[in-house]
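Feature request, filed as a ticket because there's no other form

It would be nice if the structure record came with a short human-readable summary line next to the tokens. Right now we just get the raw output. Example of a typical job, pasted below so the devs can see what we mean:
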Amino acid sequence: MSGAIRKTIALTVARLKVYIKDSDDLRQKDNLTDDEHDQLQRNCKMLRRTLTSIEKTVDKWLDFIATLNGQEKTTELEQFENYKVSERQFQEWIELAKETCDLIEVEYESLAAFSRASLNSNITQHNSHLAHQQKETKAQHINLDRVRLPKFELPVFHGEKLKWPAFWQSFESAIHEQPIPAIQKLTYLRSCLRDSAFSCIEAYAVTNANYQVVVDVLTHRFGDTRAIKKRSNQS
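Raw output as currently delivered:
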């Protein structure tokens, strides 16, 4: 009954996967070329377009379900709730695509703000010693087309409790205590996490409200001082 709809969803999810993987690969690189910056922006636009398309298909499926009754409706609802593409419930792919777009947009908003601040700082440092200024600028000048978020310079945490205090101390000083939006702090924090550390907070959406929630989850799981002391004594 809904076979054609499911086939359309599967094909659309396949496109989402391509854009998600390509975007993730680009975001993990330390230095992007101009073309790669542009490609990341194009990926975000294509993800948004593809999301609009798949959401229309989902609405069509729900409208179809609404026309059914009794056992047919129950069966179709079960198919809707359990339908998987590439071993994931299809709605998980939709949420992952939205999260990827949100992360790209947050990073570029931060990039633009940081670039403007850097430019203003360079302007205010202008003085009459032109030769000296040119020498300093060569060493300190920030190429606005290459500014990257500092997440790649931050420490990485894989989930080892003994390493949590050192990781958090570094992150706290570099990001947590800085006067930047909580959603930006969460973006930085997620970029530092790997393996079990990332898995335990992966489900939390990137929002201002969730930053402190994610910090609390990590602190509760990896910052257990008793467990840390016990492992230290056994070493």
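Something like this underneath would help us a lot:
The chain has two domains: 3-110, 149-234.
The longest strand covers residues 84-85.
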